[in-house]
Predict the structure of NADP-dependent oxidoreductase domain-containing protein.
Amino acid sequence: MILLLFSTNETELTDVLNAALDYGYRLIDTAYFYENEAMIGKILKDYFKKGKLKREDVFVTTKLPPSAHAPEDVEKCVDIQLKALQIDYIDLYLIHSPMAFQVFN
């Protein structure tokens, strides 16, 4: 399977992600830091609504931003990301960087 890495606008992302899912891609790897979780969430919601796949068919990975390492910020950040991604759970949640560099707002 080919690895796709890209940063693009919403129209291009919609086309590419829909095509990837149609061709069998099942891993979505994103991050708060990439600023595309809301776009990906909308695309996935629309794709699931078409009945082509269910949420449990896709493995979603995202990451804790380096600005949210304080324990009180982690849950807050996860909630923000879940809302942006329009999903009920994240399959794999990673720490984007082992070093924090600014306070999460």
